[in-house]
Amino acid sequence: MHILEAVKIHKSYGTKFNKQEVLKGVDIRIQQGEFVSIMGASGSGKTTLLNVLSSIDKISNGTIKIEGKEISSMKEKQLAEFRKHHLGFIFQEYNLLDTLTVKENILLPLSITKTPKKEAEQKFTTLAKELGIYELKDKYPNEISGGQKQRTSAARAFIHEPSIIFADEPTGALDSKSASDLLNKLSELNQTRKATIIMVTHDPVAASYCSRVIFIKDGQIYTQLNKGEETRQTFFHDIMRTQGVLGGVQHEHQ
Amino acid sequence: MNINELIFRNLKKNLKNYYLYVFALIFSAALYFAFVTLQYDPSMDQTKGSIKGAAAIRTASILLVAIVSIFLLYANSIFIKRRSKEIGLFQLIGMTKSKIFRILSMENFILYFGSLMVGIFLGFSVSKLIIMILFKITGVEAIATLQFSVQALIQTLVVFGVIYCFIMLMNYAFIKRQTILSLFRTISMTEGKVKKVSFLEMFIGITGLILIIIGYYLSSKLFEGDFTTMNELFLVMTIILASVIIGTYLLYKGSVRFILNIIRKQKNGYLNINEVLSLSSIMFRMKSNALLLTIITVVSALAIGLLSLSYISYYSAEKMAENYVPNDFSFANQKDAVQFKEALQANKMKFSEKIVDVIQVDVNIKQILETGLEGMNFDPNVMTLPVISDQDVKDIDLSATEVLFSGFSDLLQKFMSLKDSGPIELKGQHEIIPQNYIGLNKDTIVSTYFTNGGLPTAIVDKTVYKRLKHDINPDIQKESTIYIGIDMKDSATIEKANEIFQKMKFSDNRENDSRLETSNNQKQNMGLIMFIVGFLGLTFLITSGCILYFKQMDESEDEKPNYTILRKLGFTEGDLLKGIQAKQIFNFGIPLVIGLFHSYFAVQSGWFLFGSEVWTPMIIVMVLYTALYSIFGILSVFYYKKVIKDAL
Predict the structure, then answer these.
(1) Does the pLDDT of residue B325 top 60, yes or no?
(2) What does A162-224 look like in DSSP terms, one character per residue?
(3) What ipTM was estimated for this complex?
(4) Nearest CA in chain A to B265
């Protein structure tokens, strides 16, 4: 079953006279429980793609269905409701509330859905222990490291067991050790919780943790790679090779 | 682009973005200039002369400078904070800090003095209006011609020039602290943490509470006669002010945090959206909040207190006149009354007449006194009160043992509060008649000539009245025992009747009174104080509202990223707005409530210096203040609404 199905999505910015088309008819299908990476050079439209898939941004044309529900035609209020229950987010810049402690940040999605307190507590304890941030629960975001912040952010994305988790460059601001820690945790959660994760990244190492990599170039899907039975190492080399062909360099000036 | 061009462009951009700062400037300049113009206007001499008005105005203008400086410095601090990125950028392209400071100063100079000029112009136009209002209130007849006062202009320029220097100093310190790094990184520091319930905090909070209570207690003792010399009074007032202000600060710092901490602890990390936006956000900024809330509370308390006192004096003027002169015109001299009636008839003015027979009787009220009268010049055993028969009062019929008091003001109630009922004795020349006192009516029946300056009138049964009249004590009787009250049928003719009254020189005689005249005299006496105090009160109201509003604007900009996150997580605009409303109720409500308490005690301590009624005017002012003040709260919610909407 496809948990996410996007057909011919277009997205353009600007006025009638000065239009810039960012997505030019992208088709994406994602299975339940997949860990998918979207790769592409700067300006290729990958973050825009993630934003429209996750309902934060509106598409200009096409349809997006999540769990069979068409989100592209929903109103703002319905979308908010939908995000509450079905989506989780991890961002490059963590997006934690400075005013809340780690625990409060993580429990936030549960308070929207009015989960009973006891259940919430239990979920928090297991998840926080899995991610190794249980001891930090009463600290504020500005008192912990980047890696810890990102794990907190991940915990917040997972806690309400959403259908899909969207991650926008989650390792972008992390050192390599924290990055691999986080990616290991993510794929663990992907395995144990059967969570669907869609991640945007430009880092081949990060992408190699996924089961499938979609390459985007100039607003269109360029190619896809499936990990299959390969090891992470060989998959990584495949990704590198594809990226070389893709030739991101000429777009770097945006 | 050279520096001048840069300054000019910045200016154009900032004018649009920082209308708030410009508004604050124009507003304060207009206000101050209007006030100073009044101070120097020759047509004010008349009013000034009525009481020691000049000193009052000077004190007021000092207070005004203080509040205006606080206001401007605060507006500037927000203004400069918003530009920290720009400052970082200038540094990045290689400008020295002193050069940046020069640019900012130049820019600020144009902005500041430009607004100042606009403000002065506005102030000049407004001051004409103000002076007309002033004359209307005080009843001083003068044509409100207003000249542009050079003296006022110079004073305004000097004061605002000094404030400008302070602002520059502040900006200099700010730029000095600014690093290029802050351009790239916004370092957020939490100001309050969820900690274990600390003993220290509890202690601070309780100390604050105690200090406030001490302040309240002292204020209630202030005019009770415990402090007699001027120096003592001044010292005590300073102590009250200090203890209440410090107490308020400690209360906010300690107990608010303490209580919030407990609530948050109990939640155990599970906060709903309202709590996220209100509780945690308030705690996050507790340090700056405590100071600001204190300022707002004190300013609000001052404003409410001053406005109450001002309104009390205005309100009391008519009440007092009613108390002293129960009818439109009162006479104790029959010959004068007859003349006046003839004059009225000659002018074809309709009137009604009330004649009351009044005698003076010594009354023993010791048993019904709530408190002793230490320090007063009264002997409760023999208080000389006017006594009338119940026949002369409409709708009142007493039995032979009952006595009803009538004609009582809040002022008298304060110094001589009576029980609801109890035994009293009426002392004639020979016999003493024991009676039952059954209560108190507010209406005054006979004029102040009979009531010995505002004491209540005793109403007795007609049989008792007869006995008393036969057994009269001639030593304490007034010349006249007949009160004649004349009421005009048509209230429009009162003024004309008053003119006749004045022309016939009845007012020279203490036995006769005109209510209108009494009320006008009262207003004229209190008018200037009333006006100054009211003016300051309104200024404080607007500034405190603005400061809070600015603070909320600032906070909302700071928290915008949070709203973005929350909306991404699936909270709707409505959810967020509900949380914001909760937060604003706290931010605006707490200083308001505590401010109301402070002002209540302030008013209670000294209202009787201003007038004779307290409750009605005070409550009216408090309700009005709350309503006006809430407008700022509602405005801030609208601002938040906009920010939240733009957040995603």
Answers:
(1) yes
(2) -SEEEEESTTTTS-HHHHHHHHHHHHHHHHHH--EEEEE-S-HHHHTTSSEEEEEETTEEEEE
(3) 0.81
(4) A138
